[in-house]
Recover the amino acids of this structure.
C-alpha cells in the first residue's frame, strides 16, 4: 500500500477512535445529568414521605384533641390542614414515581388512612359535634381508631422503605455512570497516547528505517561496492526510489566495465602509439662541425602528442628544422602531425624555401575540419654562413639569442588550415656563439600554482643564461625549468628544439 | 578545471557576449555552442567583451575562426579589450586579420 495511504489510514483511525469515544462521553454525560436529576427527585420524595407521616400524625392528634376536649373547634385545624397537606404530598409522590410497587403502596397508605377516617375519625367527630362526648369517648375506647391508625403507620413505614430503596437505586446508578465516565476519559487518553506511540513506531518502520537502510546502501555504493543490488523493504514510494538508486548503481557499474574495456583497448594499442611517438621524435643525423642540435617533446597526459618536430640535414649540407603544433593532442592529431612533417620534409629536401614548403603542405592538407588547424615554424640553416631562412605559420616566435641580443622570428603568415594560405620566407643570421630556439606554446603557456604563465620572457631569460652551453644542455634546462615551474604536470604538449653555433 | 562564464545579450544588429574565465579544450565547446546559437538566431555582428578572458588556447582560436566564417563576409566578430597575452596569440596566429580587435 502506498505510504501516503497508510499514513492517511493511520491518522483517520486514530481520529475516528477518539471521535467515537467523544460521542460516547457526550451521551454518558447526558445520562449522568438525567440520573442526577432523578436522584434529586427521589431525595425530595424521601423527605415528602416523612412530611406525609407528619401530616397524618397531625390529623390523628387534632382529631383526638377535638374529641377529648369535648368539641374545642381549634383542635380540628391541624386535622383539616393535615388532610390538605397529605393530599398535596400524595399527588406529588404520584408524579415522581411510576413504579407499580410504589404506586400500589401509595394507594395502600391512602386507603388505610381513608379507613381510619371513615371508621374512626368521622364517627367520633360527628358524635362530638352532636354534643355526645360520652358516645364519642365510647367509640374511642373501642380502639377502632387506634387499630386503623396503626395500620396507617405500617403502610406508611413500608412506603418509606420502598422510597428509600428507590433512592439507593438512583444513587447506585449515578455511581455507575460516574465510573463509566472516568473509564471513557481514561480510554480517550489511552487512545491518544497509544495512537501517538503507534504512529511513531509505524513512521519509523515505514519511513525512517527504510531511508536509513537506503542511505547505508548509497554510502556502500559511494565506497565502491557496486556488485550487490539495492533492495529496500518498505512502502512502494521508497521501494521505487530504491529501484531508481539501484538502476543508477547498475549504470555506474556498466560504465566502469566499459571504461575498463576501453582502458584495455588503449593498452593493447600502446605499441602502435609508441611507434607513432617515436616517428614524431626523429633521430637526428650527422651535424656539421661547430653546430649542435637537440630537441625534446614532452607530451601532455596521453602518449601521442599533437606536437612534432623534425631535424635533418639537407642535400647541400644545411640543417632543416621543423616544429609543428596541431590544435589538440591525441592519435588523430598525432597522425596529422606525422603527415605534415613528412610533407614538409619532402618539400624542403627537394629544395623548396620554407614559405613555399608551407604553401605546398597547406595545399595538400586542404581543409582538415571546421576547427582543426596547425601552427608551424620551418627553417633551413646554411651552416657555412650561419644564414637562416625561415617561415612562421601563426606559431610563437622562435628566438635567436646571441651576444648582441635577442631576435624574435615572428610569423610570416597565418596558421595553417582555417585561414587564407600564404607564407613568406624571411631571413636572419645566427652569429657564432648564438643559439636558435624554436618551441611550441606548451612551453610558454605552462602555469604554476598561482596560475601564472611560464611566459616568453622567462624563456628568453633562460636562453640568455644558457647561451654558452651546447644544445642538449640548453634543452634539458628548458624542460627542467618548465617542469619545476609546473609541478602538477603539463596540460599541453611542450616541445623545444635548440640549435647552437659555437664561437 | 578552469571555468568559463558567458553572458550574452542582444544588440541592435546582433549580440554581445561577456566572456569571463578561460577558453581551453574543456570550455571551448561551451563558447562554440553559445556563439553558434547566436549566429543561428540571426546575429550577423557579435561582440565579445574579453576584459575578463584570462586564457585562450588553440581550441578557442579554432572556435573563433569557425564562428567568424559562419558570420559571412557581411558579418563581423569583434573582440573588445582582450588582455595583452590573448591579443598576442590572436596576432601570432593571424586571426587578428579576420576579426576586429578594440582596446
Amino acid at each position: 500500500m502506498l505510504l501516503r495511504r497508510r499514513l492517511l489510514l493511520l491518522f483517520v483511525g486514530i481520529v475516528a477512535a477518539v471521535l467515537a469515544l467523544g460521542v460516547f462521553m457526550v451521551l454518558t454525560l447526558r445520562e449522568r445529568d438525567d440520573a442526577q436529576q432523578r436522584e434529586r427527585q427521589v431525595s425530595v420524595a424521601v423527605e415528602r414521605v416523612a412530611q406525609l407521616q407528619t401530616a397524618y400524625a397531625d390529623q390523628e392528634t387534632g382529631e383526638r384533641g377535638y374529641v377529648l376536649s369535648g368539641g374545642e373547634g381549634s383542635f380540628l385545624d391541624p386535622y383539616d390542614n393535615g388532610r390538605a397537606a397529605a393530599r398535596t404530598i400524595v399527588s406529588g409522590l404520584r408524579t415522581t414515581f411510576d413504579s407499580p410497587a410504589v404506586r400500589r403502596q401509595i394507594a395502600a397508605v391512602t386507603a388505610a388512612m381513608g379507613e381510619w377516617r371513615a371508621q374512626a375519625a368521622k364517627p367520633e367527630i360527628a358524635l362530638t359535634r352532636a354534643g355526645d362526648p360520652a358516645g364519642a369517648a365510647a367509640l374511642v375506647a373501642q380502639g377502632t381508631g387506634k387499630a386503623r391508625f396503626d395500620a396507617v403507620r405500617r403502610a406508611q413505614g413500608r412506603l418509606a422503605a420502598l422510597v428509600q430503596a428507590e433512592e439507593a437505586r438512583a444513587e447506585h446508578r449515578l455511581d455507575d455512570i460516574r465510573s463509566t465516565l472516568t473509564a471513557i476519559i481514561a480510554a480517550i487518553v489511552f487512545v491518544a497516547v497509544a495512537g501517538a506511540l503507534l504512529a511513531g513506531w509505524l513512521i519509523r518502520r515505514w519511513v525512517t528505517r527504510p531511508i536509513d537502510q537506503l542511505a547505508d546502501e548509497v554510502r556502500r555504493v559511494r565506497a565502491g561496492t557496486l556488485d550487490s543490488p539495492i533492495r529496500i523493504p518498505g512502502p512502494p514510494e521508497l521501494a521505487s526510489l530504491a529501484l531508481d538508486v539501484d538502476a543508477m548503481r547498475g549504470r555506474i557499474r556498466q560504465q566502469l566495465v566499459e571504461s575498463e574495456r576501453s582502458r584495455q583497448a588503449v593498452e593493447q594499442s600502446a605499441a602502435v602509439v609508441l611507434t607513432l611517438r617515436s616517428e614524431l621524435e626523429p633521430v637526428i643525423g650527422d651535424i656539421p662541425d661547430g653546430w649542435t642540435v637537440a630537441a625534446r617533446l614532452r607530451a601532455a597526459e596521453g602518449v601521442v602528442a599533437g606536437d612534432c618536430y623534425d631535424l635533418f640535414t639537407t642535400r647541400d649540407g644545411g640543417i632543416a628544422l621543423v616544429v609543428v603544433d596541431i590544435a589538440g593532442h591525441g592519435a588523430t592529431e598525432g597522425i596529422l602531425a606525422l603527415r605534415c612533417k613528412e610533407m614538409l620534409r619532402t618539400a624542403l629536401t627537394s629544395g623548396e624555401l620554407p614559405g613555399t614548403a608551407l604553401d605546398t603542405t597547406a595545399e595538400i592538407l586542404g581543409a582538415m575540419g571546421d576547427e582543426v588547424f596547425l601552427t608551424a615554424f620551418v627553417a633551413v640553416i646554411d651552416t657555412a654562413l650561419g644564414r637562416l631562412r625561415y617561415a612562421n605559420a601563426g606559431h610563437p616566435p622562435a628566438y635567436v639569442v646571441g651576444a648582441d641580443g635577442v631576435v624574435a622570428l615572428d610569423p610570416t603568415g597565418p596558421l595553417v588550415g582555417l585561414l587564407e594560405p600564404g607564407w613568406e620566407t624571411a631571413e636572419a643570421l645566427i652569429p657564432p656563439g648564438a643559439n636558435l630556439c624554436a618551441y611550441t606554446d606548451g612551453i610558454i603557456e605552462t602555469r604554476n600554482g598561482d596560475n601564472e604563465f611560464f611566459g616568453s620572457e622567462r624563456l628568453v631569460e633562460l636562453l640568455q643564461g644558457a647561451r654558452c652551453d651546447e644544445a642538449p644542455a640548453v634543452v634539458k634546462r628548458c624542460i627542467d625549468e618548465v617542469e619545476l615551474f609546473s609541478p602538477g604536470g603539463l596540460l599541453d604538449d611542450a616541445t623545444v628544439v635548440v640549435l647552437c653555433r659555437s664561437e | 578545471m578552469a571555468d568559463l562564464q558567458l553572458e550574452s545579450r542582444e544588440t541592435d544588429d546582433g549580440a554581445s557576449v561577456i566572456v569571463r574565465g578561460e577558453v581551453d579544450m574543456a570550455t571551448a565547446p561551451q563558447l562554440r555552442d553559445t556563439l553558434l546559437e547566436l549566429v543561428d538566431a540571426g546575429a550577423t555582428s557579435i561582440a565579445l567583451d574579453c576584459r575578463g578572458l584570462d586564457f585562450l588556447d588553440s581550441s578557442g582560436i579554432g572556435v573563433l575562426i569557425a564562428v567568424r566564417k559562419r558570420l559571412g563576409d557581411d558579418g563581423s566578430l569583434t573582440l573588445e579589450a582582450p588582455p595583452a597575452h590573448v591579443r598576442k596569440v590572436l596576432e601570432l596566429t593571424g586571426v587578428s586579420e579576420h576579426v576586429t580587435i578594440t582596446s
